[in-house]
Amino acid sequence: MALSGLDIYKKLPRTNCGDCQVPTCMAFAMKVAAGQAEITACPHVDKKVVAELGEAAAPPIRTVEIGAGDWAFKVGGELVLCRHEKTFINPCGIGGMITDKMSDAEVDAQIDAIKRLQYERIGLMLHANLLAVKSDDPAKLSALAKKVMDNSPACIMLMSENPEALKSGLEASKARKPVLYAATKANADKVAEIAKSGGVPVVARGNGLEEVAEVTKKLADAGLKDLLIDSGSRTIKQAFADNVHIRRTAIKKSFRPLGYPTVVFPGEMTQDPAMEAIYGAIFVAKYGGLVILNKLRGEVLFPLLVERLNVYTDPQRPMAQSPGIYPINNPDDNSPFLVTSNFSLTYFIVSGELESGRQPSWLLVVNTEGLSVLTAWAAGKFSADVLAPAVKKSGIEEKIKHRKMIIPGVVASISGELEDEMKGWEIIIGPREAAHIIPFLKERWR
Question: Where are the beta strands (DSSP E) in 201-274?
Answer without folding.
Answer: 202-205, 227-230, 262-264
